[in-house]
Amino acid sequence: MNHLETTYQTPDGFSLYLQAWMPENSMAALLLVHGLGEHSGRYGELATRLNSIGISVFTFDGRGHGKTAEGNLDAYIESYLHYLADIDVLLGKVKNYCPGLPVFLYGHSMGGGMAAAYVLKYQPEVAGVVLSSPAIKEAEGTSKILIALSSFISKYFPKLKALKLDANKISRNPKEVEKYLNDPLVYSNAIPARTGYELLQVMRFIQNLGSHFESPLLLIHGSADELTNPKGSELLYKMAKSIDKTIQIFPGGYHELINDLDKEEVFVVIENWLKERI
Length: 278
Fold this sequence. Notes:
This protein has helices at residues 44-51, 80-97, 110-122, 144-156, 174-181, 193-209, 230-239, 263-275, and strands spanning 2-9, 15-22, 28-33, 55-61, 103-108, 128-132, 161-163, 191-192, 217-222, 245-250. It is α/β, with parallel strands linked by helices. It has one domain (2-275): Alpha/Beta hydrolase fold, catalytic domain (Rossmann fold). The strands form two sheets. The chain has an eight-stranded mixed beta sheet with strand order 1-2-4-3-5-6-9-10, sandwiched between helices. The chain is globular and about 50 Å long.
């Protein structure tokens, strides 16, 4: 397995940290988009598993995250459209690096929402899309007043710390929670108002245009996920026009399925789905 690290300069001046894990003989490639507050380095185990079945894994630390943030972690996203543009450029780079190979897109949590919105907006040619616990629908009972207020706060106080996620909800395995909280590249403070607002825009975009989703699709979600709403995955599954679409809800599963108690079963579901489409 080869591990590469490099950077990409965005047109608006960001230096995105990129990394890739590649087997000796690749049969396919996958671009992975991580979740809110975390970073690409947390996917080493998944990359190793996928390398073992001939899939090269390319990924990046998004704006305000991980090594891209250069010690100034804030999970700040000015506009989700910038994020989608980053995904588009990097997917193009993966295709150039692996000419002729099937290319997949994988997104987790916020990254799942971004990946879904990217597919809807850009309609890329991909062999398939895997969405893990994607952010597609706001939590049940979210107040309309709160949603309206988020627009005002985002506009006038974009960096105001607005919403703190409960790290204990990422996994039923206490060791995984501890690892997450002790990771210096994980941002576990309250997220900025603008980031929250932009995430809401991503969800609205998917809810409005989900019926235009046509790529092969695998959706996985835990039934007990309190960080992203499992009903969002069910909604996209129903709306998507994809002829090839699969949804698997893991009973009792928390947010990070590849770090949860059923992780072996989850890995097998992902691996088998990808293998069948190479």
